Amino acid sequence: MYNKFFQTTEFYLIVIISLLFLTIGSQNSAFFSINNMFDLIRSGIVPGIFVVCALIVLVSGGIDVSFPAIAAFSMFTTTTILSEAGFNGPIIVPFLIGGAIGFILGIINAVFIALFKLPTLIVTLGTSSLFSGFLLTFIGSSQISNLPTSMLNFSKMQILKFTDETGIVVGLPISVLVTAGIVILVSLLLKYTMIGRSIYAFGGDPASAERVGFSPVFIQFFVYSFVGMLSGIAGIMHTSMMRNSNPVDLMGSELLIIAAVVLGGTRISGGHGTIKGALLGLLLVITIQNSLILMGIPSYWQRFVIGALILIGTGLTAVQVKKTNAKRKSILT
Amino acid sequence: MESPLIQLENITKSFGGVKALKGVSLTIQPGEIHCLAGENGCGKSTLIKVMSGVHTPDHGQIFINGKKYKHLSPLEAIKEGIQVIYQDFSIFPNLTVAENIALGSELSAKRKVVSWPNMRRIAKEALSKINVDLELNEKVENLSVADKQLIAISRALMQKAKLIVMDEPTTALTHKEVDALFKVINGLKQDGISVLFVSHKLEEIFAISERITILRNGSNVISEQAKNMDTEKLVYHMTGRKLQDKYYDVDVKNKVPILRTDKFGLDHSFENVSIEIYPGEIVGLTGLLGSGRTELAESLFGLLPATSGRVFINSKEIKIDSVQKAVKEKIVYVPEDRLTEGLFLEQSIERNIIASTVVSLLTKLKMLNQDKINQSVENWIDKLGVVTHSSKLPVKALSGGNQQKVVLAKWLSSNPNILILNGPTVGVDIGAKEDIHNIIKDLAKDGLGVLLISDDLTELRQNCNRVLVMNKGRISGEVRGRDFNQKTWSELQEA
Domain ABC transporter: where (chain B) (predicted)? Predict the structure, then answer.
């Protein structure tokens, strides 16, 4: 059992992240300060939900690039509605509206994918552009900064407050609990529920899943609407943390998120992947994004390093899979 | 007499004007081991799909446990205890053994939450029913084909199966594994579970079945107790022809081998293969799927360049490291899967035939010489007996047998010296099969060396002067074509 752990992608990721932490920390002691650590976590709150989304879709054998568009659409539409209505109610309302809008947009993806059986990448590329185009044309293109008070309060609420040596109060926004809750919930869903297992089964072999009695249409509808809803919630979190709703925010973040998930050991071909791995992949990407600058490396290098990591990371796993396959498939005994 | 478990009466089913089933009847008793036999394309698979509710028949009646079904749905079939084990087993390579076995029954129990200890318990119980022990937490992708099949069987048992349909279950099994499978099937019978064993392998049919139903061209031919049947009758009913043993012999004395390999090998696939093919010979090559026979053929054709050993063509050592090299040495390979590897399906028959020789059909200005093309194409269509109205039709409009002839024409038009055929008559109807056999024999008589890879015992016996058997990447035996039968095959396999 322990031997197996040392061969997992998670293990390699932990080693790489530890090395990276030690290297950066040895170059710049500010890296290990609570302030910086909290910064790392804070920058992972919204992407944390996105990696969960990307993971679910990849496990089901698809690929979704529309989640940032769905998030942007949900958050901007929700804030537009609420600010025009002069909303003054509790924070749960924007979350419900945002989640519902995301859910509906997810259903649109699902219709094309599950009913018309179109390739997932093509559909989500299309809807991604469609959603953001619709948003900018019909709903609005200028930022909204007078958010409802409950959303502003939500962004100010903090847990784990510390006063560091320089006298600055640092803490984690309460939204970290929402991400943590979603992560735990989806972990349980994937591991211990029939729908969760059916997503793995469908990703592993769609034809077999259908023969066993799973409904591919239901599975895909569930996957894309659920992911849409999570994206909507992520959008609301993003907007309240920024205290500002900008319809062009978040766009273009999909590739980095998918990259993080793939670095975490999820296979593009479906059926394989864990939340643990995806979160570790995200931690690696965020650390590179936020902290290379602490080592005095210019920020232009971030993209280069992340690109290289993806190629090396997936390359290594591919080589490993090839090797074990050759060993396993060897006819000669 | 007990009431039958399932009764199909006068089933017809058409697909776009093609009648796949023309009034087929089949009755299976509880606890019976029933064999459904027939050539490729005779309607066996369609009948299974009717039985399992995947296809709704156009006419005819289905009775299960005395209840009449007009539109049998897959779910109803499962509820009535009909379980089909398809050739690909319908398993999930990415999930564990326990999950693969238990997931289906947990699903039909309408559970929303899965309990892992519970699944492991179910899986253990299912495996113990057929006396098998497997590591429950292992991912199925790491298991052997035989183990995957056992998982599929135990999964079917968990669904309270009354009838287990096994579609060509022995294709990828070793003889030992086939024996083990037969033990499991007999065990199922003891428990009162019926098995419908779908096969075209004569020896297996007689070894296991109590009753045999034979289909030919979508019609019932006969349904009879196995003890009243013999090989000759079975072949007659399956093919509609008398089994006549004709053999192919050739004298190779004082000839130079056209192809010789010396300790030929490819890492992880095969090793130490030393064979000779003389002009005029048809050498059979058989072995289970995954024995390395396809890899050997692909190495000889330069697709998978060999990693050790030497090849001699007409006594001259040649290094075949690419397909271009092989073609230059006049070696031709007709692959197993003609649809994806051998043909341009959307393109015309003409273009397919000239694809490998187009360079020789040019005018001085490097333009296509249509007269030469027509001449060449007409010649081949005529020589091989391709049945078609026009050579301009796309290849996909042809039947399996005629497609295979086009593949042959494509390669033969390059005037090869060595012809490697992989499963040349798989999925080909019986008439075209004989045509293809005759073409191959004529080619050999003209001095070609032929390596014929096949699973079909009769095909090998009647067309090859020698048969080589491969096992686990090594040549495990050789026998004269006329002496090749199930017994010699098994002996050579295990040797």
Answer: 6-242, 250-495
Does pLDDT of B1 surpass 80?
no
ipTM over 0.85: no
Token output for B488:
């010699």
Please tell me whether residue A57 adopts helix, strand or coil conformation.
Answer: helix
CA atoms of B85 and A111, how far apart (whole Å): 32
Hey, is B14 helix, strand or coil?
A: strand
Alpha helices in chain A (DSSP H): 2-5, 9-27, 34-43, 45-59, 67-84, 92-110, 120-134, 149-156, 175-192, 194-204, 206-212, 216-242, 254-263, 275-291, 300-329
Cα B381 to chain center, whole Å?
27
Q: Which amino acid is at B370?
A: Q
Contact B344, B337 (CB under 8 A): no
Contacts of A326 in chain B (CB under 8 A): 268
Distance in angstroms (rounded) separating the CA atoms of residues B425 and B401: 7
Paired residues of B264 in beta bridges = B273
A2 contacts chain B (CB < 8 A): no
Question: For testing the chain A interface, which of B89, B118, B120, B268 should be mutated: the one with the most A CBs within 10 Å?
Answer: B268
Among B193, B133, B203, which Cα is nearest to B157's?
B193
> What's the pLDDT tens digit per position in A37-47?
888 999 999 99
State whether B94 and A193 contact (CB < 8 Å). no
Map out the domains of chain B with their CATH numbers. 6-239 (3.40.50.300), 259-494 (3.40.50.300)
Residue A233: alpha-carbon gap to chain centroid: 12
B111 — contact with chain A (CB < 8 Å)?
yes
> Which of the pair, B258 or B336, is modelled with greater confidence?
B258
